Each structure stands twice: as C-alpha cells, then as structure tokens.
Amino acid sequence: MKGHNHLFSSICFVSFLFLCNVGTSEGQKTRTEVDVGVVTDVETTYCNMSLLYMNMSLSDFYSSRPDSKTRLVFHVRDSTNDVIGAASAALDLIKNKEVKAILGPWYSIQAHFLIEIGRKAQVPIVTFSATSPSLSSLHSPYFFRATHDDSSQVHAITAIIKAFGWKEVVPMYMDNILGQGIIPFLSDSLQGIGVHIPYRIVISAEPTDDEISEKLLRMMTLSTRVFVIHMVEFLGSRVLAKAKELGLMKQGYVWILTCEITNALISRMGETGFETIQGVLGVKTYIPRSKELESFRSRFMKQFPTSELDIIGLRAYDAATALAMAVEEAGTDGLSSSKVGARRNTTELEALSVSQYGQKLVQTLSEVRFKGLYGDFHFVGGQLQASVFEIVNVIGNGGRSVGFWTHTNGLVKTLNQKSRSMTGFSTWKDHLRPIIWPGDSTFVPKGWEIPTNGKRLRIGVPIHSSFSQFVKVVRDPITNATTATGFCIDFFEAVTKVMPYDITYEFIPFGTPEGRPSGNYDDLLYQVYLGRYDAVVGDTTINANRSSYVDFSLPYTPSGVGLIVPLKDNVKRSSTIFLTPLTLGLWLISLLSFFIVGLVVWILEHRINPDFHGPGKYQASTIFWFAFSIMVFAPGERVLSFWARLVVITWYFVVLVLAQSYTASLASLLTSQQLHPTITNMKSLLAKGEPVGCQRTSFMLAKARESGFLESNLVPFSSAEECDDLLSKGPTKGGVSAVFLEVPYVKLFLGQYCNKYKMVEVPFKFDGFGFVFPISSPLVADVSRAILKVEESNKAIQLENAWFKKIDESCPEPIIDPDPNPSISFRRLGLDSFWLLFLVAATVCIIALGKFTFFFLKENREILYQRNLQDLWKKFLQPDENSYINRVERCPCSSSQPRWKSLAEKGRQIFPEIV
C-alpha cells in the first residue's frame, strides 16, 4: 500500500512538472514569468495531489485569460516533513530563485518559521492547509491563509453539545501546535454554556499502538463518554481504529470529529476503514454547489476516475488562482530584489534580499475577490472567513449530512431553514436530522456512565449531626467497620434503587479521630470540591455560597429556617376567676336586666295576681326573687297575664343562652391552658436585643449576624436536648429567648416538645437538604429525577413515618407555615355577643308596659284629667275587678287567698305557741 501511494505521488508530481514546463514554454513569448515558490512534502500523496490542483488552477486561469501579461512559474521545494526542512526550503527559494511569493507550507508549525522569513524578505506566504489559530497572533501583513482557522468551528461543536444537553466533554488532540491551538477556544466556548472539561487526552504526534491503547483504556475508567477529536487524518484513523478494537465504539459513546480530521478522513477512508467509525459525528467544511465546481469535478474524474475531490486540494486550487490574479493586478514593475550588503557575523536570515514587489503584491492579494471552487474567496484580516459548517454522521460507507451550522442561524437541518432558539421549547430534533449513534443506536447517549471497572463512589457523611435521626455514624469497636444510618442515608439508598443504572459506593465518615480533622459542614462540602469525595449524603442545606463550589440535587426535605419560641399560659389564676368569662359591661347589663324584668312582671301582675300582693317589703323581695330564680328553677309565683308570660318566656331564653355561654367559658378557662408564644417575630427579638440560639455546625450563625444580631447575643447549640435547655432557662438564667432551627428539624423537635414551644415564623428562605456532587457532575440530573420518583411514591411517607414518628404521641402535627401573629384562643364574653337578645327582651318589655299603661290610663281617664297622681296610684294598688283573669275557672284545690296569707296561716298551724 505504501509503495502504491509513492507511485501515485510520483505520477502526480511528474505530471505537475510536465504541465508547468509546457505552460511556461507556451507563454514565454508573450508573458512575463513570475517566480513563485512551493514548500510541501513531496513524497506524500495528499501534498502531491495539492500540486496537481494548483497546476490545474493555473491552466484554467490562463486558458480563460489569453491576454494576461504575467505567468506564474512554480519552484517546488521538499520540506521533508520537517520544520527545519521547510525553513531551509523557503530560504533557498528566496535567496536563489528570488521568488515573489511562497505557497505553503503544509503544517502550522512549519508556517511559524516561514511567516518570519517572509516578513524579513517581504515575500507573501500563502498557505491553504495550516489552520492553527496561533498563526493569527503573529500579525504579519505578509501572511495569508487561504482557509479558515480551527477556532471558527468551535461554535459549531459547542452548538452540537448544547443541543443534546451534555455536561462534560473530553477533548483528545495531538501534542503539537495543531492540536493545542484549538483547545483554549474550545474551553472558553464550552464554559460559556456550562459544560465542564474534566480532563484532556493528549497524544504525541508519532505514538505507538501501546501508547494509544494506554490513553484509550484510561478513558474507559472515567465516566465521561463525549469525546472531541482534533488531530491529523492519519493519526485520527489510528486512534479511532484502536477505539473500535477496545470497545469504545459501542452504545453510549459520542465521538465528534473536527474539520481537520473529517475533511480528509471521510473522503479517503476505504470501506474497511468506515466500519471502525460507524456512528461518529463530524464537523465538515461546507462547499456550496456551483457550475464551476461541477465542471471541475467532471474534468477531474475523467483524469483520475478512482479519486474523489479533496477539500484541501480545492483550497490549493483557489489559492493558486488568487495568487495569479494578484500578480496580474500588481503588474511587472518592481520584480527585482535589492540585496542586503554582506556584513560580518550576519546570519543567513539577516542576509536575505528584500523584495521590491512584496508590498504591492500584499495589497493586491488583500483586494482579490472571486467565486472559487471552495466558495466565495476574499481575505479578511489575511484569512478566509468560514460562515457555514456541515454536520455529518458516518453511516455505511460515507458521511450522511444531518444538518448545518451557520453564523447567523446556528444549527439548522437545511440552509434555508429559519433559526430557532435552543433556549425555547425546542429539542435537538428541531435542529438536526435523525442520527445513528455508535453501536447502531438511535437513542441519544446521556454523555456519561458509571465505569464498570472504575472505583466505587466515595461518599462523605457527617459524623456530628445535631439530630441523629437524620444521620448517625457508628463504628464497631471490634471489626472497626463503619455503619451509617438515618433518614438521609435511607433516602439516598431509595434514590439509587430507582435510578436507571447501578451505582456502587461507600460511606466515609467525616470528622472521625482516625481521619481528617473534624470541621463544620462547609469543610465537608469543600472536600468534594478538592476531589477527595465524589459526593456527600447528609443533612446538608442548599444555599448560594455552597453552590459556588459544589452542585446540589433537588431538595428532598421542606425548606426554610423557623423561629422557635417558648409558650406561656396567659390565664391568671385567682379567687375572682369566676368573674373572668364576662366583661364588666355584660355583668352590669345582666344585673340591670334582672331588676327591670322583675319590675315589669310585677307591674303587669300586681292588680290581677294575688301572689304579687302583700306588704311593700314582700313585694320588693318578690321582684328580685322572681327575676333571679328564673336562672336555676321555676319560681313559685304564678304568672297569669299574657304579656307577663311573654316577657318571662323571652327572659327565660336570654338567661338560658347567657348561662350556658358563661358555663362553657368558665369551664374552658378552668380546665385548659391558654398557651401563647412569648415572641411573635424576629423583629421583636432585634428590637429587644435578646439572646437567640443557632445550630453550632450550620450556616445560621453567619446568617443571624447578617440580619443584625450581635455576636454576643448568639448562643450556639449542638443537640435537641441542649436547645431545650437553653429555651427552658430563658435569658434571665443564661438561656435564650428563641432559637433558629431549620424546618426539617422543626418537626422532629416540636414532636418531642410540642407543649413547651412553637414555631411562629420562617424568617429565612433556604432550600432544604440536598445531596452534594462536584460542579457539573452528570449524576446531579439523574439523582434529582430519582428524588422526584421517590417523593411521588409511598416510599417517602414510609421513611418519614419510620424516622420522624412523634416521641410524645399526644403532640399534634407541627405547623410548617404558622401565623406570625397568633390569635388569642380565649376571649371574654361581652355585650357584643348578646346585644340582639337583650334588644328583643327590651322590646317585649316596652310593648307590654306600653299596652298596660295605655289601657290603665284609659280606664282611669277621669282621675288622669284631674291630675291626681295619688288617687291614680291608689287605683293601681287595687285589684282589677274587670280583668279577664277573674273569669277563668280555677282549680278547686287552689286557695283563693294571696300566697303571702296562705304562708302565714301555715306558720300559725305549725308553731301555735310562737304565734
């Protein structure tokens, strides 16, 4: 195969020289020859093919312009695939051939030296294959790149990675200027979309198979499965073949090839070679279709039917055309070179002649514009600008186009497709055609895996937790084995069981005497940042400061920090507590109503009812006796008239409601505690300057200081018992007035001390507990999804019941979102609760008295006209002989005499000697 390549190269090279000589002899009589150097690796196939493309370019150019005054004459020098060889060839061409421009070299590292030589001699260097971005930093006006640099494709690669949502990418590149040049641009672009580069694979320019295998085997032990390869074609084909051999071309892997390897690999690889790269994605230079390109393809295929068009060859074709156009535009003036005077101790570079033609040629090259085979040709800043890249997917025996990347529209399926932002509700299917991935899979790889032959995840757990129900680490003194238990541990294990793949891990206690020095939770999380732990499982709160150096999963507990305060009984126990249920106003209105009702009934019954007759003292006592006896039993005095009975019935109802309400209120007051928080919000704590408690190992100490609490007023605690002790003592005995406790702990704490404390406010908004991972860890997304599955299942409820069951079963469920200003549970009864009843009773009394007064005055209007009030009073004291009550048939057993007289008679019968 190597001999065949050398034979083909020799044929191409001889054909090139022959055609050049023929063209020169034909134009000698009419055209001025302009010497142009070509620095390339003569013995390689692709370099000699480029020479053929350049020769065809000159042939087409001059045949289409028979009146041209100049003619390029190529002088080829072999760089021998070496930096020094390329520099030596350029010096020879400038010194001995006095070339006006140099086409080449092939490699970027060779171009560095040639650019300096061209600047010294003022000879333009035009390359069509050196793509390293570092060449642009030399800022030489004599350097022209008839292609784009590698950094221009970085945005296309980044767009592909963003479309599929991969969070980690590993670049694999050659250890030379070509490979290293793209890495800074790729890193910056990936960082801009939040993609992490966990490590890099650097392969030497001429590695052995063992060296390649060693690099690839290391990749298998790591989790990332997305690789970007940037190297030359012959090395890339070796790496990909070895990757296929080692099993890195199976389902789950992603391989993205840069233009450097895609352009050459797809066009030159045989059927056997394609089998090794099935499913890879490649970024390829897009060459627009044109009549000129199709015409050239037809002519090329006739001369070389077994070959395909080569992208670098097309660049060489356009570069030669551009140089011929520039020379023709520059004319023939100044073709001579001025020699630098020979001096002692001067180097060969310093002794170079300075071209008088160079500045004019630089100007005309910068202004060249035409439509070439490679596309629109125009130098901007000394190089071509790439605006479109094609995304190909290797399937079968070639690359299938799945989309394009344009500078204006990003990823699109077709070039005429309108852009669609990836930040909206779009997926990769809106931007690319279906893709077949390695392993003949249509499922998009997630971009990472837990390596089967890798180490188990090292998960740190805190050994000192404020509440052992969340995390508890126990070491067996005999076996020295460590066991971690608690709600957080069980929840993490439940999460791993519902994940779509197995995770092997081990819990490593943080803060053990045998291990690293103990510290707070921030120190524990920092171990993840340092790479000593792969994750942290425990009661670790999510906050902004911590998320700057680690990543958290979704929270799996309630969020926030609660303010816990003691409860006190607001009811004052005393000998006059029986007066407390009613307000003073209600007491006075009730007593006055008793007297008024009794007086109204006496007025209505006095003239018709013997029970309301008798001496004045007896009648006065009857008024009060009748009114107050209604509360406990039926009074002995009968009520005969309709209106008197209506008044009594109304008063009965008022007394019933009032008595029942008083009884219920007094019973509640005497038998139940009226517990209320001593403090209702954080503002009152700050205003009074009272001491508060904070968890010792949490971030709350710093947060409390930021909120305005003095350092001297912050008292740390480490356990629920210590927290209870501080609250029980109070500020007067060295305790605290309140404590800040994270909401996940509140349910546990109040379940034990519900009768003593209450959460009154959530002053700080923080997320709950989350599992901790390194920044951009691919585990975060999968663990978060698994957390949602566990929370939506019965497993979460089972874990809460198992670890957070109330110690005191009489405690109610704690209030997670309490009222910051709780209402008083006991309220004294006032007139506002019974005014309607009193109004009804007063209305009935007024109506009854009004009717009685009206008819009494009507009956005695003669006395009224005489205005004799004394006679009117005497008339009122006399029995009413005309009342309808006298016509009612009475029971024979009843006595007709007044009640007070019957009582006197009975007294004489019982105690005759006293009477």
Write the layout of secondary structure elements.
Blueprint lengths: L1 H26 L4 E9 L4 H20 L5 E9 L4 H14 L5 E2 L4 H14 L3 E3 L15 E3 L8 H11 L5 E5 L2 H16 L8 E3 L5 H12 L5 E5 L2 H14 L7 E4 L1 H10 L2 H4 L6 E5 L5 H13 L7 H20 L6 E2 L15 E2 L2 H9 L2 E3 L4 E3 L9 E8 L2 E9 L3 E3 L44 E6 L9 E4 L6 E4 L1 H12 L6 E6 L10 H9 L5 E2 L14 E2 L8 E9 L14 H22 L10 H14 L12 H30 L3 E3 L4 H7 L3 E4 L4 H7 L7 E4 L2 H10 L8 E5 H10 L4 E8 L7 E2 L5 H14 L1 H10 L31 H25 L1 H5 L3 H9 L21 H12 L5
Describe this structure in words.
The chain has 915 residues and is of the alpha/beta class. The strands form eight sheets. The chain has an eight-stranded mixed sheet with strand order 7-6-8-9-10-15-16-17, sandwiched between helices. Strands 24, 25, 26, 27, 28 and 29 form a six-stranded mixed sheet that branches. It has a five-stranded parallel sheet with strand order 2-1-3-4-5, with helices on both faces. The longest helix is centred in the last third of the chain and has 30 residues, at 642-671. The radius of gyration is 52 Å and the shape is elongated. A hairpin with a 2-residue loop joins strand 15 and strand 16 (398-406). Residues 1-29, 340-345, 513-518 and 815-824 have low confidence and may be disordered. The N and C termini lie far apart (156 Å). The protein is 41% helix and 15% strand. It folds into four domains: 2-149 and 296-378, 3-Layer(aba) Sandwich (Rossmann fold), CATH 3.40.50.2300; 151-288 and 387-430, Response regulator (Rossmann fold); 458-551, D-Maltodextrin-Binding Protein, domain 2, CATH 3.40.190.10; 577-671 and 834-909, no CATH class. It is built from 28 helices and 30 strands. Helix 12 (311-330) crosses helix 13 and helix 14 (487-498) packs across helix 23 (779-792).
